[in-house]
Each structure stands twice: as structure tokens, then as C-alpha cells.
């Protein structure tokens, strides 16, 4: 029997410095998770990241249980929330578009 894939959204914010993306990526990989999507930005001197991750129930539980300690060691403030799989939510009738400035 195969276990269902669990999806998590992780958001993290902290002073911008080299190595933050590597630290987050290594943490998720070590927990048995995968990064499905990411968005990152530097605003002022702060680095912000949103990650959509996936993994087994055990991987999700490990990420949820240990993210706070990892973030503290990395100098980040982090939140994690379970979410649905991409495409699981019905799309609205809105037209998709891309805005480039």
C-alpha cells in the first residue's frame, strides 16, 4: 500500500546572507521531502522565500516538527502549513496572464 503524498507550504524570512537557500534545501531533503515550487525575493535587507514541498506523511511530520529549530539556527522566522496538491483545486473562469515590468 502506497502512502498519500502530503504537500506543505513553507514561508521563511530573515536577514539576507549567502547559504540560506542551501540550508533550507538540505533540511527538506534530509527530512525526505521534495521542493515542488519556490518563490524568493530580497526586500531591503531581508530575504523571503515561499516553498511548496511534497513528501510522505513521515517526511511532512519531520519538517513540521523540526522547521522551527532549523529556522532559529539559520536566523530565520518560518511558518509551515499543509495544503492541497497543485491542480487539486478547481480553477476559476479567470483568464491567465503574465505581467512583466
How would you name the oligomeric state of the polypeptide chains in this document?
single chain
Instruction: Give the strand order of the largest sheet, numbering strands 1, 2, ... along the chain.
Output: 2-3-1-4
Spans of at least 5 consecutive residues with low confidence:
none
Overall CATH class: Alpha Beta
Number of self-contained structural domains: 1
* Shape assignment: flat
User: Strand portion, in percent?
Assistant: 35-45%
- End-to-end distance: 48 Å
Rg calculated over all Cα atoms: 15 Å
Share of residues in helices: 25-40%
| Annotation field: number of helices | 2
Series of H and E elements: EHEEHE
| Average pLDDT | 91
Question: What's the name of the CATH homologous superfamily?
Answer: ACT domain
Features:
Alpha-Beta Plaits; alpha+beta; 101 residues; single chain
Describe this structure in words.
A hairpin with a 2-residue loop joins strand 2 (34-43) and strand 3 (46-55). The protein starts with 5 loop residues before the first strand and ends in an 18-residue tail after the last strand. A 4-stranded antiparallel beta sheet has the order 2-3-1-4, covered by helices on one side. The mean pLDDT is 91. The chain is α+β, with helices and mostly antiparallel strands and 101 residues long. The chain has 2 helices and 4 strands; from the N terminus they run βαββαβ. 19% of the residues are buried.
Amino acid at each position: 500500500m502506497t502512502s498519500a503524498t502530503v504537500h506543505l507550504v513553507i514561508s521563511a524570512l530573515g536577514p539576507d546572507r549567502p547559504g540560506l537557500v542551501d540550508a533550507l534545501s538540505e533540511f527538506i531533503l534530509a527530512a525526505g521531502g521534495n521542493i515542488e515550487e519556490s518563490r524568493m525575493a530580497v526586500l531591503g535587507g531581508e530575504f523571503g522565500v515561499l516553498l511548496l514541498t511534497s513528501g510522505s506523511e513521515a517526511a511532512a511530520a519531520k519538517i513540521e516538527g523540526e522547521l522551527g529549530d532549523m529556522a532559529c539556527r539559520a536566523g530565520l522566522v518560518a511558518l509551515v502549513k499543509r495544503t492541497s496538491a497543485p491542480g487539486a483545486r478547481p480553477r476559476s473562469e479567470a483568464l491567465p496572464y503574465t505581467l512583466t515590468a
